[in-house]
Design a protein that fits this description.
The chain contains four helices and seven strands. It has 166 residues and is α+β, with helices and mostly antiparallel strands.
């Protein structure tokens, strides 16, 4: 019978210090700006209202900031009474009493716009999800957003029962 290989690992820091540093994550970069997570997604504290969403948008890197600001402005222009919040480092949009219908998230090469009941939209947003009713639209650098199509999707999505889980 073959022996199992073992791997020795040496710690560069004492275990206590490593555990302590894991228990207190930092949400700010050295310059005080929000920390950027995987794909450049800003780490923003959970919060309700326009303030946390504007913090998220301001912290987006490069061309993704323009996409985020454009989406936010288009959503507000299309649905002036939209409710906003940040959850899981993602801005969400909803209608009071109906739940959330949309969120977007920074991925390395694109912005992922998530329609939480996108399976009911006409035409369907093009990207499928593991969740049968969720649909995505990916915006890449240099893409031109079809504002008429997005505004139509926003209106349709706002009329559907939204996600009330948070």
């Amino acid at each position: 019978m073959a022996k199992k290989a073992t791997v020795k690992r040496t710690l560069k820091k004492p275990v206590e210090k490593s555990v302590r540093s894991l228990s207190k994550p930092t949400s700010k970069a050295a310059d005080g700006a929000p920390k950027l997570l995987s794909g450049g997604n800003p780490q923003i504290a959970k919060g309700d209202g326009d303030g946390p969403v504007q913090q998220y948008l301001a912290a987006l890197p490069g061309w993704k900031r323009d996409v985020g600001v454009t989406l936010d402005q288009l959503i507000v222009r299309t649905l002036p009474n939209v409710r906003k919040a940040v959850r899981w480092n993602t801005p969400f949009y909803g209608i009071e009493g109906q739940g959330w219908f949309l969120g977007f998230h920074c991925i390395t090469k694109y912005m992922k716009v998530a329609f939480l009941n996108g399976g009911s939209l006409k035409p369907l947003p093009p990207v499928e999800s593991k969740q049968p009713n969720v649909r995505y639209f990916h915006v890449y650098e240099g893409d031109v957003i079809d504002e008429d199509q997005f505004a139509d999707w926003f209106r349709q999505a706002a009329e559907l029962p939204g996600d009330r889980c948070f």
